[in-house]
Amino acid sequence: MTEFRMPAEWSQHDGCLMAWPTREDLWGSVLAEVKEEYANVARAIAAFEPVTMVAPPGFGEDARALCGNGDSDGDGDGDGGQGGVTVIELPLDDSWFRDSAPLFVLDGDGNRAGVDFRFNAWGRKHHPFDSDDRISGLLLEHLGVDRIPSEMILEGGAITVDGEGTLITTEQCLLHPNRNPGMNRDRIEAELMSRLGVTKVVWLPYGGLLDTETDGHVDGVCAFAAPGTVVISLPSDPDHPDYARMRANRAVLEATTDARGRRLEIIEVPQTAFADIADGEIEVSYLNYYVANGGVVVPVAGVPQDEEALAVIATAYPGRKVVGVRALAIAFGGGGVHCITQQVPAVRTAG
After folding, report:
1. Which domain holds residue 262?
2. pLDDT of 59-93, one tens digit each?
3. How far apart (Å, rounded) are the C-alpha atoms in residues 12 and 168?
4. Which residues are known catalytic residues?
5. pTM of the prediction?
6. What Å distances lie between residue 61 and 25, 148, 229, 264, CA to CA?
């Protein structure tokens, strides 16, 4: 049996997948604003690697008008080149490809496949979600990539991997009864190991307290930045709702080793960002960034803390250009830059 593993996000990409926002019952009065933000994220990433934007049927021209269009044939293989955003149309319910798109894995020869986990809209919070449950398989068919099925419900935002056998997740999310009530912790670990090629799962107790949409995805908490290195949100304000929770998470990371027995270096992001939108206050998570070829695209809120957070993140990714993109409307919908993107790792070629 061929063995696959999920590479780290900082590995070389053939491109990035995104989905165009159209769900009026989610976005409401900020729909026009969030389309601009998605387009800005797509263009920021396209400065580093090709982007394929998937729009629901009939919305392709809407996406092209704001994103621009690459010169590729729309097959998602990256031939649009750096700077291009290619738009294709496939049936969608929503626009969070970190969670509904495939999780790509590579075998020992560098061949690519996609793991098609089930999707239930974060515990059936939004309806319908049947098209998003099917989009992973449709994308793999469109891209000509082999499909590896799994009956477990899993969103990509619930995990971070180092590409060397270690996966970090949160108990708050993966053990929530609205995902896989028939699977205990051991069975969930076994499925992660089987499908993603990891050998050690690190369980943090908490996601964000305010993250009621995803029930505490890890991509608002921490991310591997390199083998043995983790960037973690650690609010400096004692009144922040996650002040104690993130310190409990840090204690777990301090006490653990990765799959290769290394102690973890921890880089703290103490900055937090709150801003007003649609007559309410939202939090923009700096940790919810996307690592592209040669760059890191980070959600920002237009507040003084932005520059401080970008500087900390830059220390974690030496040699990469760190770019901030305003993401208030995206945060209003419950996520950040990482939530709306999915990397397609490069296939290794002979020679």
Report:
1. 4-345
2. 999 999 999 865 433 344 444 345 599 999 999 99
3. 21
4. 339
5. 0.95
6. 21, 32, 42, 46
